[in-house]
Amino acid sequence: MNQTSTKTNPTSTSSSSSAYDDISNNQDEDITVIPPPKMKMQVATTITFRYCHTCGYQNLFKQFSELVRTHYPNMAVIGENYPPPSLRAFLARILSMLKMGLLVCLLFGQNPFALLSIPTPRIFHWALNNK
């Protein structure tokens, strides 16, 4: 990096030169001394909890966040639902649909296993007889 600086001769008596020196000296002082900020920003610490909503951990999160807020009032506590992995969410939907389909078949007295050429499980016969 190539920097050039102009220096004035200290023996010169020109008023414009001394005025220039005063300005440049003041600028150097302003650069090296940084004044403290007028308003101090206090950054609050944030804790983020991810919990399983369907497993019943939401109430536990509420209790824990109240406990943290009583001991540390400046601390922010954020809770959010922990999303399951996409493959597991997909499998859960498929199983839920199969379960609903079997319940509908039970209500209407239909045997879906006969349509699929699969032997009917005993539990399905028991459910058909005891509905």
TrEMBL record:
Residues 1-18 have a biased composition (Low complexity). InterPro entries: Selenoprotein_T, Thioredoxin-like_sf. One of its GO terms (molecular function) is thioredoxin-disulfide reductase (NADPH) activity. Residues 1-33 are annotated as: Disordered. GO terms for biological process: cell redox homeostasis. One of its GO terms (cellular component) is endoplasmic reticulum membrane. This is SelT-like protein. The lineage of its organism: Eukaryota, Metazoa, Spiralia, Gnathifera, Rotifera.
